[in-house]
């Protein structure tokens, strides 16, 4: 290569690079649209090369996440272009090698997370520049040891997490952190440490929390004062760690010690250690019988009078007698009995000495029922505020089951099998504020259940089997703010089923079987309701005549109506959302809505977030003005709605819009002025749309690449729909800008040439050409016939493509004449037969391919909206690629050649035989002519790949032929 070509090459490379970064879109990263241009996520890119991923990020980036990529090394100076980074997360990649100067210049970095990689070695100088680092995680790597001096400059480090590595040498770790005067938390769980022996170093005084769980510790082997400043010490799951390892060790400052699953004998341990006995968690220390527990209690009692917390979980305890805890010091806080084998609580009589206890945890045991506790020698635990029986096997709860804790505020009975809740089970619990009954088998709620619980604020009944809410069930719950009834089988509320809920603010009813929205809703919750979740019920409307069920809900801010089963909302009455002036979020996804009225959202002036993802049936025509009052919306999701047309008239009023998700729609072009009318737009997602790489998008291409404020998600990966090798951002637009002079010159030249050549050829070659034409024609029709014989088995006879303005004709004329009326064709209509939840484009493709024919109903509106061109393209594709002609055009109006777009003109030249003209009502003999039209259409549909011509059948048409009709013999044209 010469010098000059070298130069040229580098100039081109530079130009290409400049073009890549001049706009506001990124190759492999997405800027969080609500992060004030500071957060970037580069996730799940198939890119191995770190520089390629981050090269186009702006200098001002502060947060950066690079996750789940096949990157395996970080090269020197990778981040020098991002000197302002503060939070860097490089997790779940394949990183093995980090070069010495990989993090050069990251002086501002506060947090570095490199968890879940394959790092086995670190260079001693790799963190050198990270002087401001406070958080470092190396979780789940293959580190065996730390090189000397690795953290020497990280004087601000506060938290160091090295869980799940292969470390064996504690001495090296202690050495590496000993000078970190700000280190507070060190996590070394899941390593292979066998002891804590260390050379002449000590841990920094600041270090108060040390986790060394799940190692292989045998001894501790450290100097007496080594753990002198530790406050939280986790040594659990070191099965070989024994009591004597603690001999002489100063644990004075420890206020929480975990010893579960070690070989430590707690009684012995308490005798030799200077730890405050009340600061040991006795969970998982093998205290499974009365003798051991009584011995422990007596010992504890000798050391302390009161104990704030007694942890006895995971001990295999099967039974607690009245003496078990009798000798214990007074428990003033929490008793943890979780993960034992208790079958009964025996009305908590084992707590008869512990009147000051505040919280009791009996989760994960084998309790099968909670019996009535209104007995003679019952305990009375007035201070208990929290009681948890979660994760048991409780089937029934008897009357007065909680008589012993009259002042309980939080009661957790969730995740059991409660099928029977006695009417008086919760009797007397007047202070109860939170009641968890979710994930049980309750079927009926009665008026008596909550009679006494008038201070209840949160009631969770999710995932039970409740089917009806009876009158007065919640009548006394006047302070309830949150009611969760999701995941039940509720079909209706009795008329006063919701009475009494005077303070209700959040009401969850998702996943039930409601068929309509109760009209009592708005009477009951006028000024209180803020959240209403009706997702995934069976609500459906069949006509527009519905008054808004939300009319008085003036405070409602969140409304979820998505995914009504199995048919979707179907009709969205245009007055449905009347009065919801405070609404901030509205969810309408997956609903099969037939038509979005242009005034449906008119009252939602406070709306911030709207998602219509796959809300509608097939192809939706968003009406101009449908968003006209949504001036506060910042995020709009209109994915997968079959949108063909993105215009200023529809989107123009969304002046606060920041994020617009238009992906998975069918528009082939977008007018730039529609996008420019959104002054605050910052994030535009147009992935998976058939935006064509043609001149009509040349302005759009220019805008996406050059504009300086709108991020087009993964712009540089958008492909051209017709040629996957071409990219949208750089398809050739030169031809679109050929200048006029050149154009005139070229066309004149061509005309002159034709005028000279054609007469010559005509004279010389006339017969040869004619002969050739006939040979070709006969070959062609032969091929056609062969192909048409092997008709495939199709799901539909025809897929009908039409514009919504012709819907009436399709419904009233086409459908009855083809599906009924003696001819039983199976038609595919988008509003009826498109599969819910699927991409519109996929739906169209599958409709064209699973139908024998595609019938396009052509009118002026149809041509204007350019609709159907996708279907026509697909059908033409079948013609060229499979030699199977599937397209039938039905003209509803007289349309002159000139008005017909290029696709149709092409068709007209190719196959003149596939046209039918609908005889309007203004012709001489409409009934007869229409009769004939239907006959011909049916015949065309029945025929193979070609319309057979039979002269005698078109007699009726011949009679009425007028002058302006084309005289092509094969052209079915009725007046
Ligand atoms: C950056 O990440 C941190 C930690 O996740 C978060 O607290 C902070 O809000 C983020 N900053 C921005 C601008 O998103
Ligand atoms: C690091 O990765 C890049 C890109 O994958 C590669 O070109 C380079 O040779 C690698 N460097 C080392 C030292 O392995
Ligand atoms: C650490 O961060 C602070 C605040 O962001 C900054 O002022 C300081 O310059 C940084 N330190 C270094 C060594 O750059």
UniProtKB/TrEMBL annotation:
The keyword Glycoprotein applies. InterPro entries: Leu-rich_rpt (IPR001611), Leu-rich_rpt_typical-subtyp (IPR003591), LRR_dom_sf (IPR032675), TIR_dom (IPR000157), Toll_tir_struct_dom_sf (IPR035897). It comes from the Eukaryota. Residues 945-961 have a biased composition (Basic and acidic residues). Pfam families: LRR_8, TIR. SMART domains: LRR_SD22, LRR_TYP, TIR. Residues 945-975 are annotated as: Disordered. Keywords: Glycoprotein, Immunity, Inflammatory response, Innate immunity, Leucine-rich repeat, Membrane, Receptor, Repeat, Signal, Transmembrane, Transmembrane helix. The keyword Transmembrane applies. Residues 1-23 form the signal peptide. GO terms for biological process: antibacterial humoral response; inflammatory response; innate immune response; toll-like receptor signaling pathway. It is a single-pass type I membrane protein. The chain crosses the membrane at residues 743-763. One of its GO terms (cellular component) is endoplasmic reticulum. Residues 794-941 form the TIR domain. Its main location: membrane. It is found in: Membrane. GO terms for molecular function: signaling receptor activity. Belongs to the Toll-like receptor family. This is Toll-like receptor 21. The lineage of its organism: Eukaryota, Metazoa, Chordata, Craniata, Vertebrata.
